[in-house]
Amino acid sequence: MQRKVLRRVADSITITDNRTGESLEIPFENGGISAAQWGKLLPGVWFYDPGLVSTAACESSITYLDGDEGILRYRGYPIEQLAEQSTYLEVAYLLLNGDLPTPAEYDVWQHEVTHHTFIHENVRKRFLEGFHYDAHPMGMLVSAVAALSTFYLDAKDIFDIESRNKQIIRLIAKMPTLAAAAHRFSVGMPFVYPDNSLKFTSNFLSMMWKTAEPRFDANPALARALDVLFILHADHEQNCSTTAMRVVGSSHADPYSATAAAAAALYGPRHGGANEAVIRMLTDIGSLDNVEPFIASVKEGSGGRLQGFGHRVYKSYDPRAQIIKKTADDVFEITGKNPLLDIALKLEEIALSDEYFTSRKLYPNVDFYSGLIYQAMGFPLEMFPVLFAIPRTAGWLAHWQEMLDQDSKIARPRQLYIGDDARDYVPIGAR
Ligand code: CMC
Fold first, then answer.
1. CA of 78 to the centre of ligand 1 (A)
2. Is 311 annotated in the active site?
3. What is the Å distance from ligand 1's center to 270 Cα?
4. Can you give the residue ranges of every domain in the chain?
5. Model-level pTM?
6. Distance CA 279, CA 284 (A)
7. pLDDT tens, 193-250?
8. Is 111 an annotated catalytic residue?
9. DSSP assignment, residue 309?
């Protein structure tokens, strides 16, 4: 069959179905091509893309990421500048609203978040205190966030902007309270109420560590270091948990249920659980002498993965890891060096000069050093994914809101069926 001759234009691709000889020209838009257009030529033929490695599931104007160049920007602002000059609350505002707040807008925003930090007494007494004494705080957080949807019935009004904004403020404000409450319960300490005179991270540190003193004043440098870590973790475009947020949100579930789903996705060791896995790995390695044999075992496949290394998108370096290394120095100056740091540094040095890792473009990611900082600040390992979930809530909600504003379709991918053909049911006695 003769092929259709197509006009030659830049910025388009032509596909030909060799079964029919039919061709279709599809323009590139924003660096991608429309699968819906493609489907016009190939109805009933699906893109096979496990892990959505080559699929853009949405258009987004929140976060820009260039994995080859190691670039990360929130709403156009380089992560390096935000980490240096901004605060987590300001970044949360930026992610959600698209622009940095004016001083007046920031005052209102900070006031609103600060005055929504309290949780209903029943969330603490009935839910959190109902967990088994050794419950993982991340499991408690996921459940408590989901439970919040039953306390705020107006949360279902997701297209009522006033209600939507209220849930966004509640979620950002209450995450640290829930997180600290989960920790206090797991160590048998009494719950500490939020202190509205404190800033976001100082308030969280007060809820974590306060004992008998009337007011807990966190070391300002440590509160700032945590704020920087929160900025670095606030968003990372279409990662696993954000995708979970968008997928669940696309069914028009309330934001608490969607955030609980996102937090559950973050829990896994391939995602937000990686910083916990890094410390366990470094502890298992135990001494500098064991670093080389450990690397050898990773390479031959018996030692598992080098935790805190590699990234689906970053293939030259993770800009967050570079900032975090500097933050680690600031924190260790106050807390003393984490004894695992030397093992981490040696591991990094060997891996970065080893062909196995360089040929696969495996570099330290944000989690390689964040765990060392959290540990030096006194956080137990189980709290690490929780510390990731607190700031990522801003990113999840920004994506959720964007998805709703785009009037996005319900997420419903296709599959390539590879199972049995039709067969007749065999009664149990005849099998
Ligand atoms: N250690 C050793 N080998 C690795 C590692 C690692 N950490 N990561 C990837 N590889 C190898 C993998 O075995 C494969 O080799 P081969 O081609 O010979 O089969 C190759 O590199 C490609 O791996 P992949 O699994 O196809 O890569 P991916 O893009 O699907 O996985 C990743 C990305 C982050 C899940 C993975 O690198 C990993 O498991 N890293 C360790 C866990 C970790 O640090 N996660 C935190 C990610 S950053 C925080 C966040 O955003 O959540």
1. 25
2. yes
3. 8
4. 9-66
5. 0.91
6. 8
7. 999 999 999 999 999 999 999 999 999 999 999 999 999 999 999 999 999 999 999 9
8. no
9. B
Q: How many helices (H) and strands (E) does the chain have?
A: 18, 6
Tell the residue nearest (CA) to atom 45 of ligand 1.
Answer: 270
Distance CA 204, CA 195 (A): 9
- pLDDT tens column, 167-200: 999 999 999 999 999 999 989 999 999 999 999 9
* Cβ-proximal residues to 67 (8 Å cutoff; 6+ apart), any chain: 311, 312, 313, 314, 315, 316
Tokens describing residue 305: 């993965």
Which tokens is 87 given?
């605060």
Which residue type is seen at 102? T
The kind and range of the H/E element at 63 are: strand 63-66
Burial state string for 217-244 with b = 16 or more CB within 10 A and e = fewer than 16: ebeeebbbbbbbbbbbbbbbbbbbbbbb
Indicate the residue type of 135. Answer: A
Q: Of the candidates 242, 174, 176, which has an alpha carbon nearest to the alpha carbon of residue 209?
A: 176
pLDDT at 10: 64
